[in-house]
Structures are given as C-alpha cells and as structure tokens.
Amino acid sequence: MSEPYEEILEGETMLRFPPPDHHEHVCSKLHALVREALASMGNSRLLRPRTLVPFSAGNLLRPDLTIVAVATGKPFLVAEIIHAHDHRVDTVVKKELYERYQIPRLWILDARYDNAEVYHGSPIGLVLKSMLAGKEALKEPLLGSFTVTVSALFQTR
Q1: Which terminal residue of the chain, N or C, has fewer Cβ atoms less than 10 Å from its own Cβ?
Q2: How far apart are CA 64 and CA 47, in angstroms?
C-alpha cells in the first residue's frame, strides 16, 4: 500500500488516504500497458502515478495516471481509479475540474464494480463516450496500439 498524499482542490488542502492494494494493482497494470503503447510515440509522456499536476494555483491534483503532450506539457489523458473511500472526490469534484481545464480524455476506472467510463472533451465539456465492462476493450486511438479488456485490467492474478 502507498502513503497518504495531499491534493489542493479549489484552494482547499485535502489529505487523501493511501489507496488499497487492488487499486494499486490496477494502477500498476494500467501504467505498464500505457508505457508500452507510448514507447514508439515521441509526442507524449507518461507521468509517474499520482504525480502532482498543477492545473492552477488553487488546484494541484494527483491523478492515478497522467499523459502529457511533450510540446506543451499539458495533460491530454487523465485516469482516476475509484475505490470506496474516494468515489465522490474523484467522480464529482475532480471530474468537474478536468472539465473546466478542458482535458481531452478522462478515464474513470471503478475498481468497486470493475467497469470503465471513457469521456472525451468537447466544446460543451466532457462527454461520456462509453461505459465498458467485462470483455469489452478499453482503447484509445491517441495511444496507438493501446488496448486492454476491462476484465483483464481489473484481474488481480
């Protein structure tokens, strides 16, 4: 299990509890798969899990996964892995901030129910493009060859 960490949301410092083992397993697997997909692409960089990302002075977030564009340093894909203790913060508060800062892609991976929500940025905000579970594949054309079935992503063995 990892250590507690802090985020600043709307100017308020929030102490976040260490994620449970299942969350960390999913996070490690996701990072390995994305790192492999990005290996042949020089235009993007994968940050370490929960790297502090300054969206503004009052919003310093630590997404579970962040991919930034090399040219701008701005995040273009963010993933949050949800567990019982952080559901509201990640799916409501942080999702609203990602929408405000016009993140092109957001994945919300719910380790409680083994499903994934994929959002795309649009002129009207984040739009839910798909809800995935089981043998359905999480894919991202911006990541070239990246694909993983949702069941494989959440599998602990």
Answers
A1: C
A2: 9
Q: What is the DSSP letter of 18?
A: P
> Can you give the residue ranges of every domain in the chain?
5-154
Chain center to CA of 43: 19
User: How is 32-62 classified by DSSP, letter by letter?
Assistant: HHHHHHHTT-SSEEEPPTT--EEEETTEEE-
User: Do residues 32 and 121 lie in contact, with contact meaning Cβ atoms separated by under 8 Å?
Assistant: no
Task: Tabulate helix, strand, coil % of the chain (nearest 5).
Answer: 25, 40, 35
Q: Work out the burial of residue 144: count CB atoms within 10 Å of its CB; fewer than 13 is exposed, 13-18 middle, 19 or more buried.
A: middle
Q: Name all contacts of 136-141 with Cβ < 8 Å and 24+ positions apart.
A: 138/107, 140/77, 140/105
Fold of 5-154: tt1808, chain A (3.90.1570)
Q: Give the residues of the chain that fall short of pLDDT 70.
A: 1, 87-88, 157
pLDDT tens digits along 82-98:
987 776 677 778 899 99
